[in-house]
Write a structure and sequence with these properties.
The protein is an alpha+beta fold and 169 residues long. Helices cover 50% and strands 21% of the residues. Strands 1, 2, 3, 4, 5 and 6 form a 6-stranded antiparallel sheet that branches.
Length: 169
């Protein structure tokens, strides 16, 4: 029997058209459902990417610590001479700084960035203060806790501003 004869006989077989119709409907339903799944999956992926775009910047880092906190710290301390910076370890140490309006007092600051996330507890500031006595001797003096807290707040506010600008583009 030739191929065309086999095809003609199979077309005449009982239920062939019904079977073919059911197969066609099944394939069509499968295509539509896959298309719908793809649409929903695409929407879900798009939503996740959008959420990641909003959240990821808080963790942006090409260095060892949060880049926003690092930049904000450098900006905040830019008026002071830097003694040491370690971007991988997240430590910035200033040299002694004396305000020209008050040359009898000087301050030294160490900022540690403790995390890759932009969080309030990711910044620690330690300040040292000295006062000049007898015109030539620097004596250690206490630093007000409010001064350290204010410096941490300034750094965090600046970091948040940098992050907002980055998100807006």
């Amino acid at each position: 029997m030739t191929l065309s004869a086999k095809m003609t006989n199979s077309l005449k077989a009982p239920g062939f058209l019904a079977t073919t119709a059911i197969r066609t409907l099944a394939v069509g339903a499968l295509v539509v459902s896959v298309g719908a799944c793809t649409h929903h999956r695409h929407a879900a992926v798009k939503k996740k990417l959008h959420e990641a775009a909003l959240l990821a910047p808080s963790k942006v880092t090409t260095i060892g610590v949060n880049a926003y906190l690092w930049r904000a710290t450098l900006d905040t301390l830019s008026f002071m001479p830097l003694l040491q910076t370690d971007s991988n370890g997240g430590v910035i140490v200033t040299d002694w700084y004396a305000n020209p309006k008050n040359p009898g007092e000087r301050v030294k600051v160490t900022v540690s960035i403790l995390d890759q996330d932009l969080r309030a507890d990711a910044v620690r500031v330690v300040a040292s203060r000295q006062v000049l006595q007898h015109g030539d001797v620097w004596i250690d003096a206490p630093v007000e806790a409010a001064t350290v807290q204010k410096l941490e707040d300034v750094i965090l506010t600046r970091a948040r501003d940098l992050r907002r600008r980055t998100i807006r583009g």
